[in-house]
Amino acid sequence: xxxxxxxxxxxxxxxxxxxxxxxxxxxxxxxxxxxxxxxxxxxxxxxxxxxxxxxxxxxxxxxxxxxxxxxxxxxxxxxxxxxxxxxxxxxxxxxxxxxxxxxxxxxxxxxxxxxxxxxxxxxxxxxxxxxxxxxxxxxxxxxxxxxxxxxxxxxxxxxxxxxxxxxxxxxxxxxxxxxxxxxxxxxxxxxxxxxxxxxxxxxxxxxxxxxxxxxxxxxxxxxxxxxxxxxxxxxxxxxxxxxxxxxxxxxxxxxxxxxxxxxxxxxxxxxxxxxxxxxxxxxxxxxxxxxxxxxxxxxxxxxxxxxxxxxxxxxxxxxxxxxx
Length: 324
Prior knowledge:
Largest sheet: 9 strands, mixed
Shape: elongated
Strand order of the largest sheet: 9-8-7-10-6-1-4-5-11
Radius of gyration: 22 Å
Number of helices: 9
Helix content: 25-40%
Order of helices and strands: EEEHEHEHEHEEEEEEHEHEHEHEH
CATH class of the largest domain: Alpha Beta
CATH topology of the largest domain: Rossmann fold
Number of domains: 2
């Protein structure tokens, strides 16, 4: 019995959500007391497999086949079906990416199982894994458990902090698959390319994010000063961008960008689940809010209960003094 985490890559580059899924898989493995393995698929993936081996894993399965050089749902489903039948994991964990949404339901159906998607948390009750999903845009949470094995789950972006390399190299096992090209019915075309963002918040090491606590657009210079003195990117929760106070490309959350900076300042942000999804991967979260019961404090590493119009200028002044 084991946990199998499917790591996603495209063109030799990791989807960073893979390592959030890996963190979830490691949590499941630790709770159940079973080993955690991972798999990477593609063509010419030796370097990726060796890189993944540096994480805390029992084994890395490398499925290297020319037919997997470009993603197709038929190819990925067939290859993973063969591995799962051979390895017989208890739980198969995916990042909840667009690619996974395309093929994972098809894969789970081949085993007569449903895909439990968009998981944001998990717990063990009576030896049974219970997965937490959100309903109605995060207004409700549902506890879900699967009947029988293997169990198939996808992890929502930002729900878990990405796993870090452990420094101990796991064994890499090349798993040979038999793929009939005539069964791969789709022909890959050029991947969709989004318009280039002028602001890539995901690349920022420090972010100052502002919420509706700022009250009005004319007050934005208060937080802009903090971002400037820290050398941080300025971001916002959805209401700020919906009001047109900051451009949509600076929105963090389930309908905006998902970020994982070293430090994330949440200024005047209450902590709605839609926003938390976008920033839970942050290494350190500093929250400033006058409501001591604001949900953001449950996620924050450091919390300041106070009026942002008093706290933020004081922080800016002290930071400037420290830099002088």
